[in-house]
């Protein structure tokens, strides 16, 4: 896989890509403290690595293969909340500034998601930034509370990306699924 040019200015340095063994990105991850990354569990399941002690390759989303963080160990998985924790020896250049509870996000707050896009196009894309509006929460029958947002620009591959408030860049969630009510 070819290396990408220098980082795009809009791509936070705490974002990474989860890679298949052949170097193709399958999802997004983000660093919450040096060497500790979060992603969606289903991203790891896609490559058969959704269990503790599995290993996956990760690199920095901002510059792709030019900045390899290396092999990440799966430290924890939570299938109920679609969350996985990875650890790396070589941390990404930055960490998220602040984690905030999604319950505290006011309705219609502006959010932004930057992640790895999978787009049917003649060209490959390193990153895509989607804006949207927070829509509140939903509680599943198993009592799992989910944050909801509306953003037509979210595409496959962005799973695992942090959902950030535009106002202060606080991370208020992790993109776990794309649901389109028009599909039902």
Task: Kindly list the characteristics that best describe this protein.
single chain, 184 residues, mainly beta, six-stranded antiparallel barrel, five-stranded antiparallel beta sheet, 1 helix, 3% helix, 40% strand, globular, disordered N terminus
Task: Explain the overall architecture.
- This protein is an all-beta fold and 184 residues long.
- Helix content is 3%, strand content 40%.
- It has one helix spanning 41-45; strands at 15-19, 25-33, 36-39, 55-60, 68-78, 83-88, 110-115, 128-139, 145-150, 162-165, 171-174.
- The protein has a six-stranded antiparallel beta barrel with strand order 1-2-3-6-5-4.
- The N and C termini lie far apart (38 Å).
Q: In sequence order, what are the helices and strands, one letter per element?
A: EEEHEEEEEEEE
Poorly predicted spans = 1-5
Quaternary organization: single chain
Estimate the mean pLDDT confidence: 87
> Based on DSSP secondary structure assignment, what is the total number of beta strands?
11
